[in-house]
Amino acid sequence: MEQSVNYLGLIPLFPLLGAVLIGLLHVFTCNRTKLPEKVYGILACVGPVLSFVMALKVFVALKGLPPESRFLVHKAFTWFSVGDLHINMGFLADPLSCLMLLFVTFIGSLIHIYSIGYMGGDKNYGKFFAYMNLFLGSMLVLVLGDGPVVMFVGWEGVGLCSYLLISFYSEDRSNVLAGNKAFIVNRVGDLGFVLGMSFLFWAIGAQGFDYLSLKAHVNDPAMTQGVLLTVCLLLFVGATGKSAQIPLYVWLPDAMAGPTPVSALIHAATMVTAGVYMVARFSFLYAEVALAGSIVAWVGILTALLAAIFGMFQEDIKKVLAYSTVSQLGYMFAGVGVAAYSAGIFHVFTHAFFKALLFLGAGSVIYALHHEQNIWKMGGLKNKMPKTYVTMVIGALALAGCPPFSGFFSKDEILYSALATGHFGIWAVGVLVAGMTAYYTFRMIFVVFHGEPRDHHAYEHAQESPAVMTVPLIILAVGALFAGLLNLPAIFGGDQIVSHWLAPSVTEHHPHAGVFIEILAIGASVVAFAIGIKIAYAKFGKGAPEPSFTGFADFAYHKFYVDELYDKVIVQPYKAIGSSIWKVIEPNVTDAPVKGVARLYMVLGTAFKVFQVGYVRVYALYMVLGLSLMSLLLSQSLN
Amino acid sequence: MMHCYLYLSIILFCLGIVGVIARRNVFTVFMSVELMLNAANLAFITFSRVHESMDGHVLAMMVMAVAAAEAALALAVVILLHKHKSKLDTNVFSLLKG
Amino acid sequence: MFEHVLSVIIFLPILAGLILLATPASRSVARFTGLAVSLATLVLSLDLYAGFQATGHLEFVENIPWIESLGISYALGVDGISLFILMAGSVLLPLVYFVFGTREKGYYANLLLVQGAMAGAVCAADMILFYIFWEVMLLPVFFMLGLYGGPQRLPATLKITLYTIAGSLLMLAAIVYLGVSYHAQFGEWSFAMDKMAALNLTGRVAAVAFFGFMIAFAIKIPLFPFHTWLPDAYTEAPTATTFVLSAIMAKIGVYGVIRFVVPVFDLEFARFAILLAYAGVIGMMYCGLAAIAQKDFKRMLAFSSASHMGVIALGVFCMNIQALTGSIYQIVAHATSTGVLFLFAGILEERTNTRTIDDLGGIAAKAPVFALYFAIAMLASVGLPGTSGFIGEFMIVLGAIKFNTAVGVLAGTTLIIGVCYMLWMFQRVFFEKTASRSENFKELSLVEGLAFLPVILLIIVMGIYPHPFLSKITPSTALQFAQPASVVAQAPASNAQNLGLTIEQK
After folding, report:
1. Displacement of CA A160 from its chain's centroid (Å)
2. pTM for the full model?
3. Is the predicted pLDDT of residue B8 greater than 90, yes or no?
4. Does one domain contain both A532 and A618?
5. What are the tens digits of pLDDT across the range A524-568?
6. Hey, are the CB atoms on C397 and A198 less than 8 Å from each other?
7. Suppose C144 and one of C129, C241, C494, C499 were both cysteines; which one would form an S-S bond, judging by CB atoms 3.0 to 4.6 Å apart?
8. Which residues on A lie below 8 Å from B29 (Cβ)?
């Protein structure tokens, strides 16, 4: 049934080799004569582009197979094998991973090209590209891995790269702290992943611990509802870490400390959607327990709401986008939670285009303004940077869900699925969030590009970015415009190409709720979008002064003090426990018996010291006394 | 008859012990030790005579040899002690006091 | 490959060390001799590794009767479990001679002695021989710590020595008990390790003997709550000694548990495994939490090492093949990662004259190769997939879940605890602005860089392609769980009582 092709392993290998090569070049030259930037730039782009070409080849190969047997596998080598545990370093390309593969390599290549311009002049130019290539390689391992353990390799690998790239400007303590936070919070999620894998393994893993075998054994008697629920929820804990959902979303906004292309590639388009991909990958498990799906959906939609509220009050252009990413990820989880896996993955797909576009656009603005990120210091930039402006507006429309931009179709698909499966609460919150999304997205667009310039000095020096940066923007804008058409629902005369493509990989049942529900869903979304954009225009369309926040707005501006709460409830007590162990428990409790024994000997020694008078004749007396005593005892026992 | 020799030996030995324990002059202590050795020799010879074997004689000769060697060493030590503190009172040398 | 290769691996360093001590060699001659001998040992060990057949049983066996009246023999042999501890020592110890300035002659002589003794302890197939090497192992550590350690070395030396000797004496008593029991049950004297599994041990005395062994090994590992000698000793010892203690000697404690406790005291072990597993987990969390409070990076690494040892020990107590194999794999991974981290800490200390984390900063910009090496070792130590640390940790957590869910979940937290203190330390030392102490930090020299390279590569290779290593371990670990052979050979319990097993009845 499945076909083995050995070029599958090459896809992640290209960027990984690139990373090693660039990294070594950088390490050995960074404190001596530097290599010209061009060398790094070209080397860096070779890997991703080759991977993209291979991804196309995979796509063509899959397309040539009948839908139900669209599986390409490649077992590179036995990774480890102990007892029942057999893990291969194996890769699996099926429609789901192929879709991810295509857009990850495509957007990855574009962002590498963009970075050649954006990172120009940086003293760690080589290091940046080494990390980026390493990231892309890890992401491809994550996507292509044929089982949970191989996926975990990529999963942690992208986490590492995320850490390295967030702390890229490592001289500034706050950046490194943001990196640490990202790594540690992700590790909390990873604990869930590891435990989930372990439970899954002891239930059905002995017959093969890859997706295809697991899927075949999902109905074994060992998979009770309890085990299924445990596994699903633990895996979802992993997803909340990587994909920034409640309660582990706190790292993503801070992650904006990294260079902007990183925010675009890792913290918007690819890595953060890994959680959604994982849930879709394990759809055969989630389909068995409805409760797990509902929990996923509710966590997702509540995260969407929370992040949208935060997004409305941010002043840093990248933080606005960061919260919008968290919010959109929430939508995706709502989608996969209500068992609309293809809708969720489709939103991953479209989101990758428009969010990468928005971040790169924001990067272009930041680049032009010499690393100014506060939107209240910008304004009126549309004349200075027309290409950036137009492309960003396209991205914003897609994000806000304006028909016929890509975001509209994918978001609508999710909301429709929620409604059709009877999750009215999720749908209602989803519509509300859609309105809020339109509001904060256009608040940003209006404040940055419209009205009068607020900082004239910066405005004078601003100019359009070079072609190496704007061309990727334009390509992505085209994607943001038309990607939605790929999955055009029947009501618009399409035939849902993506959903059909994904059908063999995910276990889902398409609900048929009738045309009325479908129109209701679409209508509500459009109305919400219109209201959101109208309010934004009314408040900011003609230029507005920097607002000062009071009451709820102030509370939201401070993100409900969640960071402070975590600090007080988790971080500080953790440190306090650490230092109390070291300063109080270790010397007074654990070490006490040892010191007690030592003290006992000291006391005994002091007591017996009295007899050691130091006069040799007294010792002689002791000897005589001892001998006499022994003789006495001996003579008595002999009698 | 044998008892007389043994009693003499015991008396000599006890005298030696008292000398070691009660006297403070290093030479007196040393001479008391020699006295104890000779008491032991007397006992050896006595028993040798009683059992009509030469073992006791051999041991007595051995003890005398050792005593001679010991005397040489002990006198050397005494000279060193005197050099060190200019005194031959054993109470002065109480470095082992706890 | 020749016949007495194990004896040569053991006695070449010991002889070289003794000769060094006896002759008035200069410091640099001592260093060079040490390097040459350890490299020779490395070559022999590699040869040994290549010739290892992975049958699961002891290989390269040497057996010469020694004290025949008591059935004690000079018996050596390696299986998949001991091979890797032996290899870890042989591969890592040459590094010590490459880095750091030249030290006293006695320092190198003691290093050689300890290397031989450790090899002896893991190769010994006779309990008395094991005990002798086990004790000899302590002596060089005593001298290196007491003579060449830091300012607070004397209390630390006293503590480690008394702790270890107390444990050793309990173990000696337990070994004698095993020998006597064997004599009582089978009518002949023997102290051969592999024969002990046939013993039928019941009753309170067996439990006491079990704890005699366990406490000795728990002190060496060190297992919570017997770890309190560790922070002082690791911190005050010269770096090479800390390296020896953490990278290899601690592992011999774990090895002892696998060799003596698991096969011989199977009943007691099954009874107390849960208790021991909790000791491992609590130790992991306790030391991991204490690590975050440290201001001295060497002491932080000391606690980190103890924390990892808790996980490794846990793997042995979980009584399934995944966890046990994971433990042995993790032993090597931990030796390469934490051991190398200790060496790096020594380099940091030597070049900046400080051990305080807050005094440092910005080293990554000054010394990129050093930072890269350090980062790889650190990532292995926190168990990142793609490095050696992941494979073992994953299998241990997996096995722990099977053994007991609560233990497994707690063991999983090592993922989080480890990363907290490591990243915090890395941030302060390597990132941020360059501090005055680290302003002139010198990059690794070419020789040092090349010397560390094989170990760093090993960390990565062991993470990406562990199969060849694992396939040498698994036959031996599988035998630990095979059972039937030893059950058949067991003397009937009634037999033991009829013979009037004196020790049992008094």
Report:
1. 11
2. 0.88
3. yes
4. no
5. 999 999 999 999 998 888 777 777 787 888 888 888 888 899 989
6. yes
7. C241
8. 616-617
Same domain for A310 and A389, yes or no, is yes
Instruction: State the Cα–Cα distance between residues A581 and C226, nearest whole angstrom.
Output: 15
Sign of CA dihedral A198, A202, A203, A207: positive
Domain range holding A613? Answer: 602-639
Please answer yes or no on whether A577 and C289 come within 8 Å at the CB atom.
yes
What angle, rounded to 10 degrees, do the helices at A515-540 and A406-420 form?
130
Whether residues A420 and A312 fall in one domain: yes
Which of C269, C273, C249, C291 is closest to C400 using CA atoms? C273
User: Which residues between 200 and 229 in chain C have a beta carbon less than 8 angstroms from any beta carbon of chain A?
Assistant: 224-225, 227-229
> Touching check for B22 and chain A: CB below 8 Å?
yes
Tell me which residue has tokens 């070291």: A582
Please check whether residue A617 lies inside any domain of the structure.
Answer: yes
Interstrand relation of A85-93 and A72-82 (parallel, antiparallel or unpaired): antiparallel
Quick one: A442 and A532 in the same domain? yes
Give me the domain span that covers residue C47: 5-505
User: Which pair of structure tokens corresponds to residue C501?
Assistant: 């097993």
In this structure, are A329 and A394 located in the same domain? yes
Length of chain A: 639
Q: How far is A181 from chain C (nearest CA, A)?
A: 9
Domains present along chain B, CATH in parentheses? 2-87 (1.10.287.3510)
CA–CA min distance A598, chain C (Å)? 10
Q: Compare CB distances from B97 to A608, A614, A624 and report the shortest one's residue.
A: A614
Q: Which secondary-structure segment (H or E) carries A432?
A: helix A424-449
Domain count, chain C: 1
- Is residue A179 included in any domain, yes or no? no
Number of domains in chain A: 2
Residues A364 and A433 in one domain: yes
> Which regions of chain A are under pLDDT 70?
1-2, 511
Cβ pair A347, A401 in contact under 8 A: no
Residue A484 DSSP symbol:
G
Closest to A350 measured CA to CA, from A415, A432, A411, A265: A411
Report the neighbours of B using a cutoff of 3 or more CB pairs below 8 angstroms: A
Distance CA C330, CA C308 (A): 9
Which chain C residues are within 8 Å of A198, Cβ to Cβ? 397-398, 401-402, 408
pLDDT tens-digit map of C251-280? 999 999 988 888 888 888 888 899 999 999
Kindly list the residues from chain A whose CB atom is less than 8 angstroms away from the CB atom of residue C466: 79-80
* Nearest residue, CB atoms, B97 vs list A608, A613, A617: A613
Angle in degrees, CA A145, A146, A150, rounded to 5 = 50
Residues in chain A with CB shorter than 8 Å from the CB of C227 are: 590
Is residue B89 helix, strand or coil?
strand
Chain A residue at shortest CA distance from B30? A617
Three-state secondary structure call for residue C374: helix
Q: Which residues of A touch C427 (CB under 8 A)?
A: 167, 173, 176-177, 179-180
In this structure, are A553 and A634 located in the same domain?
A: no
Chain C residue numbers touching A173 (CB-CB < 8 A):
427, 431-432
